[in-house]
């Protein structure tokens, strides 16, 4: 094979990653946070710092989502924006309860999973 043919195959034969939507990015971030929460909860007795890190990352994600839905230019319907902001507030309070050893991460995982279903478009599925 000639160098030109080899270079052409290398340049034109590459498959570029498909363009990802903001919803897909949000889904991936929630999925990663949810996975980390689940793993950290299972290992909480031997690795509490892992749990604290997972909770912090999840709360940071929810803080960013809350800031986004609070923006005037956000295109989501006002009732959905309000519900998402409420979920942020709940997540913040529940995170403190988990860190104080007064609650589990299960409800946080459930919330993330429900939002992921909504992002996927099957919010009514169980």
Topology, please?
Blueprint: H1 3-12, H2 22-42, H3 48-70, H4 78-99, H5 106-120
Helix pairs in contact: 2-3, 2-5, 3-4
Can you put this structure into words, describing what you see?
The protein is 72% helix and 0% strand. The chain is mostly helical and 126 residues long. The protein has one domain (22-120). The chain is globular. It starts with a helix and ends in a 6-residue tail after the last helix. Pfam families: FlaF (PF07309). It comes from Stagnihabitans tardus. Keywords: Cell projection, Cilium, Flagellum. This is Flagellar biosynthesis regulator FlaF.
What is the total domain count? 1
Which blocks of ≥5 consecutive residues have pLDDT under 50?
none
Distance between the termini: 54 Å
SSE pattern:
HHHHH
* Major beta sheet summary: none
Helical segment count = 5
Q: Beta-strand level of the residues, as a percent range?
A: under 5%
Total number of beta strands: 0
Tell me roughly what share of residues is in helical segments.
over 70%
Mean pLDDT: 88
What is the approximate shape? globular
**Structural class category:** mainly alpha
Radius of gyration, whole Å: 20 Å
Keywords: Cell projection, Cilium, Flagellum
Pfam families: FlaF
Protein name: Flagellar biosynthesis regulator FlaF
Write a compact overview of the structure shown:
The chain is mainly α and 126 residues long. The chain is built from five helices and no strands.
């Amino acid at each position: 094979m000639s160098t030109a043919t080899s270079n052409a195959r290398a340049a034109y034969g590459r498959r570029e990653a498909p363009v990802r939507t903001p919803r897909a990015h949000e889904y991936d971030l929630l999925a990663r946070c949810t996975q980390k929460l689940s793993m950290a909860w299972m290992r909480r007795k031997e690795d509490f710092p892992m749990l604290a890190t997972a909770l912090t990352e999840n709360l940071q994600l929810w803080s960013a989502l809350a800031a986004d839905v609070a923006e005037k230019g956000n295109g989501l319907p006002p009732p959905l924006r309000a519900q998402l902001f409420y979920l942020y507030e709940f997540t913040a309070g529940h995170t403190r309860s988990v860190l104080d050893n007064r609650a589990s991460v299960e409800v946080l995982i459930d919330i993330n999973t429900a939002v992921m279903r909504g992002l996927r478009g099957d919010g009514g599925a169980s």
